Amino acid sequence: MKRPSSIGWFVVVVVIASLLVGCRTPAGRTPGEVVDDATITTAVKAKLFRDPYLSGFAISVTTFKGEVTLTGAVDNQYQKDRATAVARSVPGVVRVHNLLKIK
């Protein structure tokens, strides 16, 4: 039985690496960027849930390329501003779009 040449292994490694690097979502994002956004979303939701002034509110959080969007309703301006501050405190957040409505 003949052993594969080192050139053959090199070609296989290059092909696999190029396939992994070339993977992108329809929005042109890499899998790593999607995971980072999911991680940011989870961290923001957890902080909002633990916050004593915001934990009872249904605040939706979405993240795209590090930009967090908050939607839902709160009772007053203080809570709206606090939600922005909480979201900004999460590592990786580039910008916060606060679309929360005041009831």
UniProtKB/TrEMBL annotation:
InterPro entries documented for this protein: BON_dom (IPR007055), Lipoprotein_DolP (IPR051686), Transpt-assoc_nodulatn_dom_bac (IPR014004)
Entry keyword annotation includes Acetylation: no
Name the record gives this protein: Osmotically-inducible protein Y
Taxonomic lineage of the native organism: Bacteria, Pseudomonadati, Thermodesulfobacteriota, Syntrophobacteria, Syntrophobacterales
Pfam families recorded: BON
GO cellular component: periplasmic space
Segments forming domain BON: 36-103
Main location class: periplasm
Transmembrane feature ranges: 6-23
Organism name: Thermodesulforhabdus norvegica
Subcellular location: Periplasm
Keywords linked to the UniProt accession: Membrane, Periplasm, Repeat, Signal, Transmembrane, Transmembrane helix
